[in-house]
Amino acid sequence: MRANDAEIETLLRERPRLPAQFKLGVVFLNSGYGWRFSTADRDQTLAMAESLREERLISAMFVVDPEILALHADLAALAFTERPRLDEIRQMAARYGADAVAVVSGEAQVKEEANARAVFYLTVVGCWLAPGSHRSVLFTARASVWDVRSGVLLASASAEAERSSTRPYALTNEDELTADAKDEAMESLADELQRQLLALAPQS
């Protein structure tokens, strides 16, 4: 993406247009094979709502679910977009009545290596008994919070977690490693995002 000086100047003049206590929507983008954001991930993220309300920063916090918006004709195409653009996300959030929207995404990077015991994989028994496969998963969770009206970035956070195991080839479980790494990363992300948002609270 290329931007000229005039476009940059326009962006710098933009200011958030949030009410004193705003409504915060949260969009979860599932974007990987072998994992999805769970109900527990959503609940953990929404758990910060109480602290944000106590600081009089928000009046409500809720999940913006693209699939529900498929019921609306002009947004049906957006509901199943794998990677919606920011303007599309803002449009979906506006339908929910959100003043700001947090976009939560994740990425899992998998590494596989064989050690010296992998030579036993030449036999069927070796595939089940010889711990010759090392597998690690690095999960990165990210969140960015945007003003729905102006498109100004309000806050951002990221967190990483890694899980690994060395097992026989037949007993490797990538999904389990990914789920464990995702859970840890999401817990850290929720804490960091809460700190970033609390920094926006008005000073008494």
Describe the model.
- By secondary structure, the protein is of the alpha/beta class.
- Helix content is 33%, strand content 29%.
- It is built from seven helices and five strands, in the order αβααβααβαββα.
- The chain has a five-stranded mixed sheet with strand order 2-1-3-4-5.
- The radius of gyration is 21 Å and the shape is elongated.
- The two termini are 41 Å apart.
Features:
7 helices; alpha/beta; single chain; 5-stranded mixed β-sheet; 5 strands; 204 residues
Secondary structure elements and pairings:
Layout: H1 5-13, E1 22-29, H2 39-46, H3 49-54, E2 58-63, H4 76-79, H5 86-95, E3 100-114, H6 124-129, E4 133-147, E5 153-167, H7 174-198
Parallel strand pairs: 1-2, 1-3
Antiparallel strand pairs: 3-4, 4-5
Relative helix content:
25-40%
Strand order of the biggest β-sheet: 2-1-3-4-5
| Terminal-residue CA separation | 41 Å
Q: Main beta sheet: strand number and arrangement? A: 5 strands, mixed
The number of helices is 7
Can you write the helix and strand succession as a string? HEHHEHHEHEEH
Structural class: alpha/beta
What's this model, at a glance?
The protein has 204 residues and is of the alpha/beta class.
